[in-house]
């Protein structure tokens, strides 16, 4: 795709996920707040737009993603998100909580920010668990019904929530909340940098937190910028 001042961040990453590394380098949110132009994000970060554009073009041309999420069927993408991201979150939450609880207890006097990090992650764990269940039990099954209706030309009865945009708007809001929460966690931990007196458990906990946030970014990107947009388009076409 052509990348210029008017290109939308989310569209660039949706076309080639490897461009996300450039946005991460400059601290630009490409998932929750990806619906901004290159000009807008460059101005906000005090970056010369051409500098950002040239780096994006180089990585786009030199390293096309092997996984073309854009051309996947929406029902398959739902299953992929569940199997690769929902299950990851469910698996990692108890382990990260265990590590954070331990280091807050041992290092909390010297690093009181750990207590806030622990509390924020507990809140995230609860919210994400509920959020994912709503997707698994309500939104994803309906998106699969949209795909089936589109493939078979069989009319789909209207859902109790009116339109797919209503639960999607709720998911967007909850994604924004998690993005904000993890920006705070990142700031509190100096971008997941262990202090000089950090033990191995401390280092492992921060590394796991950072990996968790990176997975969450990709998870939210796949939903906000690909799955949800396409689901709305399919519903509009059916109507």
Description:
- With about 240 residues, the protein is an all-alpha fold.
- The chain has 2 domains: about 10-60; about 70-239, no CATH class.
- Helix content is about 70%, strand content about 0%.
* pLDDT averaged residue by residue: 92
Quickly count the helices: 8
What's the helical proportion of residues?
Answer: over 70%
The poorly predicted ranges are none
Proportion of residues in extended strands = under 5%
Number of strands: 0
What string, H for helix and E for strand, traces the elements in order?
Answer: HHHHHHHH
Number of domains: 2
Main β sheet profile: none
Radius of gyration: 20 Å
**Morphology:** globular
Compute the separation of the termini in Å.
30 Å
Query: Which structural class matches the secondary elements?
Result: mainly alpha
GO molecular function, one term: metal ion binding
Keywords: Cytoplasm, Iron, Metal-binding
Protein name: Regulator of cell morphogenesis and NO signaling
Pfam families: Hemerythrin (PF01814), ScdA_N (PF04405)
């Amino acid at each position: 795709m052509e990348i210029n001042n008017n290109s939308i961040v989310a569209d660039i990453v949706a076309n080639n996920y490897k461009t996300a590394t450039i946005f991460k380098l400059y601290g630009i949110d490409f998932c929750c707040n990806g619906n901004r132009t290159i000009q807008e994000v460059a101005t906000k970060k005090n970056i010369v737009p051409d500098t950002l554009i040239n780096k994006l073009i180089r990585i786009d041309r030199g390293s096309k993603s092997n996984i073309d999420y854009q051309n996947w069927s929406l029902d398959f993408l739902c299953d992929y998100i569940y199997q690769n991201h929902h299950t990851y979150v469910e698996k990692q939450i108890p382990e990260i909580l265990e590590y954070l609880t331990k280091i807050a207890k041992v290092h909390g006097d010297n690093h009181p920010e750990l207590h806030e990090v622990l509390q924020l992650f507990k809140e995230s764990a609860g919210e994400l668990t509920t959020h994912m269940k709503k997707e698994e039990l309500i939104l994803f099954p309906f998106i699969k019904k949209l795909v089936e209706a589109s493939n078979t030309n069989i009319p789909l009865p209207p859902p109790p929530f009116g339109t797919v945009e209503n639960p999607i708007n709720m998911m967007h809001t909850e994604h924004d909340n998690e993005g904000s929460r993890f920006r705070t966690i990142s700031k509190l931990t100096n971008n997941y940098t262990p202090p000089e007196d950090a033990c191995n458990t401390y280092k492992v906990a921060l590394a796991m937190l950072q990996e968790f946030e990176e997975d969450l970014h990709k998870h939210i990107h796949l939903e906000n910028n690909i799955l949800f947009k396409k689901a709305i388009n399919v519903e509009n076409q059916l109507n």
